[in-house]
Amino acid sequence: MDYICGYCGKPYATIGERMECERKCYEKKVQEEENLKASKRDEEMKKDYASITDLVKERDALDEKIKLLVRDFDKKYNVITPINWGDFFDPFKFWFRG
What we know:
Elements (H helix, E strand, L loop, with lengths): L2 E2 L6 E2 L2 H63 L13 H5 L3
Antiparallel strand pairs: 1-2
């Protein structure tokens, strides 16, 4: 009578041989599942990180655009906004801004 491994289907003459094969196959299966989970997590992490960096770049571009628009507004209407309050504390920026 042959004893067949429940994972790989190999036939064995004794129950002990089959049990040893099933143990090895089970460990291999568990390791493959862990590797698959880790690779999926890494891919998802890279995707999320890429979307975060894209949003950060977009935010930085908008911040720069806002800064320029506020500076133009200040010059046009001779207004002092909170964005350039720091200029009062740095005399070189205040007197030589441009």
